[in-house]
Amino acid sequence: MSTGPVATAHRLLTEAFAAMDEIRETGTDTDLLSLLPLCEGAIRKLDRITVATVSDLDRRGAFTDRGYRNPALALADLLNVDRADAKRRVRAAEHVHPRTQLDGTELPATLPATAERFADGRLSLRHVDVIATVLSSHAARRIDPARLEAAEQTIAEHACVYNPSELHSWATQLVEALDEDGPEPDDAPPPEINTVKVIPNRTGGGGRITGRYDDAVMFDAIATALDALSAPKDNLDDRSWDERTADALAEICSHTLDHGPTSLTPEVGGRRPVIHVVIGLADLQNRARGALLDFGGQCTPESLRMLTCDAAVVPIVMNGAGQPLDVGRVKRTIPDGIRRAVAVRDRGCAHPGCNRPPSWCEVHHINPWELDGETKLSNCVMLCKVHHRLLHHSAWTVRIRDGIPEFIPPKWIDPQQLPRRKPRPVDVA
């Protein structure tokens, strides 16, 4: 980036940032208080340019030409940001910039009043996201287009005064007031909601499981099974009712994994679900004082000794570099043993920033089978469907280095093409 307009812009920005940093170091309180609005204004200008650039690239098909169907995914890789941040910028681009139809016809911005104020720096990117969210709601869609256009003007004006949280509450009330008739009456019973959330703890083993069952039959089946197994074992059982219920649920799941028919435990990702216990070689030599489970939790020596008595648990011994010691046999179709080893090494999709678990992933030959690539651990990587397709249809490449997958971005994402890899879990040895 030594010559050209981008280099010039980079130089000028560097000089401007240096000047602001000098004010921070040497300025008075008054100077520093004035510096903060200046920084916020600069952020809003940069956000405006970013959003406009995303819109231009999307209209030109630049992301599609590089193998990305989703602009947000391309932006997340290019800028190395979370997908939520990338989606927010793409969403803003879709609402505050002109759109082009398939026949080439250009349509004005969906939110023209918002676009005007975002362009002159009176609104932040978060304000734009709030307005787009409120005006895309079901209530907003029921409002007459002319009234909705006037509402957008009013909301954009108030956005210059309200912070994003205040704006969201006020704009939602406005839209609900304009939606005088509300949703059409529905004599049908409300839909039944049956949901379960499994959320692993970020800081260690275990996690939270919460659920809701409106279906009375399903709820009774679960409640009956839990009740049958959660009774106190004897008069010395001092566990609380909640603790006994939690133990009962774990017992039911363990029994199903071990002994349930195929209809109850279907294959996921090409194999039946099995608990993996990852044991470091040093730990094994040290009488197995700890191990790592599939979802990243560390189990205690007591739990490990209990698990290793169970034939449905697959112990996988790791060497000091965190690599499985056995790679299985070589053939085109990924054998179950190699898939297990790849799953243990990659912990799901290996692409940086992706958190898809192994059950949602496929195993990819780094050096293709048709080009004499072998089916072995050092030539395999686990990828979700999105990143598997991306690897086949874009300039991304992957290699194994020190036994760990690392991805080389195309030059348009990183001119230096520095390798990227996911953070490794803390060694339990």
Can you offer a commentary on this structure?
- With 429 residues, this protein is an alpha+beta fold.
- It has three domains: 13-178, no CATH class; 194-259, no CATH class; 336-408, DNA Binding (I), subunit A (Orthogonal Bundle).
- The chain has helices spanning 5-26, 29-60, 62-65, 71-79, 83-96, 112-119, 125-134, 138-141, 145-159, 164-178, 216-229, 241-259, 281-285, 301-307, 336-346, 385-393, and strands spanning 99-100, 106-107, 194-200, 207-213, 276-280, 291-293, 298-299, 314-318, 361-365, 380-384, 397-401, 404-408.
- Helix 2 (29-60) packs across helix 5 (83-96) and helix 6 packs parallel to helix 9 (145-159).
- Residues 305-315 and 320-330 have low confidence and may be disordered.
Radius of gyration from the alpha-carbon trace, in angstroms: 28 Å
As a percent range, the share of helical residues equals: 40-55%
Give the overall shape.
Answer: globular
DSSP summary: helix tally? 16
Distance between the termini: 45 Å
Poorly predicted segments: 305-315, 320-330
Strands of the largest sheet, in order across it? 7-6-5-8
Q: What's the count of strands?
A: 12
* Helix/strand order: HHHHHEEHHHHHEEHHEHEEHEHEEHEE
The whole-number mean of residue pLDDT values reads 80
Strand content: 5-15%
Protein name: DUF222 domain-containing protein
Organism: Pseudonocardia nematodicida
Pfam family, one: DUF222
InterPro entries: DUF222, HNH_nuc
